[in-house]
Amino acid sequence: xxxxxxxxxxxxxxxxxxxxxxxxxxxxxxxxxxxxxxxxxxxxxxxxxxxxxxxxxxxxxxxxxxxxxxxxxxxxxxxxxxxxxxxxxxxxxxxxxxxxxxxxxxxxxxxxxxxxxxxxxxxxxxxxxxxxxxxxxxxxxxxxxxxxxxxxxxxxxxxxxxxxxxxxxxxxxxxxxxxxxxxxxxxxxxxxxxxxxxxxxxxxxxxxxxxxxxxxxxxxxxxxxxxxxxxxxxxxxxxxxxxxxxxxxxxxxxxxxxxxxxxxxxxxxxxxxxxxxxxxxxxxxxxxxxxxxxxxxxxxxxxxxxxxxxxxxxxxxxxxxxxxxxxxxxxxxxxxxxxxxxxxxxxxxxxxxxxx
Length: 356
Ligand SMILES: [Zn+2]
Known about the structure:
Number of domains: 3
Helix content: 40-55%
Bound molecules: zinc ion
């Protein structure tokens, strides 16, 4: 019993001393300039193992051993190590990212200055949709759009919004309803016709892909229960039909204006068979009423539909607000897009597209 008490006392003393800074005082006692330097050197130098690796790689003369670089320390043990870029590793700030060394190699190879590399990493590397192939564009886009958040810079550049519409275009590879993003940079061939088109239940002259047509029926019936009547005015449109429409708008308004509200052939979501334009026959002023739109905003996602061109997002979708245009993406994705309050374009880049 006595011994135990004594032990307890010793522990208490040790704990007390360490927390009141005994070690601090020990260091401070020898706090001459020389000692300080030694401590710094000791702190910043590489481990024996690292030094061995540095010697093995024969890069000792290229670096400053007294100036510790965590990035270099990581690089020398990485399979991506490239001796041409040793000074880049030494100068690059460390970020906890499994591709860090690969990214540095790529940027160095492209002639990116080390301060630019650090700025790119500092601002953008943390985001899940960071794409090294677009890294330099993030930087230049951020200079021109300083009010955007860094996350939005990454997403917008990935979506090609730093380039003029209809440039750098890509063909849609997967036409399933979650994966098919059609916008001013992504198109389907003019000969593309979706399979499984099905007439809509209350207007058989219009067709959608079967899953979307079934969802449309549920949606219209759901609205009916709340006293709202919706009827489709357009659903699937062929590229030839789209061309006719677009050309007529260009004749009327010119290319620039027509592009704000009409898609060029191949670039219309209607060609996918997942979209429908709605009309409320009881509302004469426009296609749908403000209260219809409120209902859509609060309910469409429950049936797998999203508002594809919402107001306030024109700079992302490339189109003025279309409160009547719904796109089918399935219930899960529709709910996420609704809850996150983002566009399909953003959702696609953040959660569907593969980066790097
Ligand atoms: Zn439409």
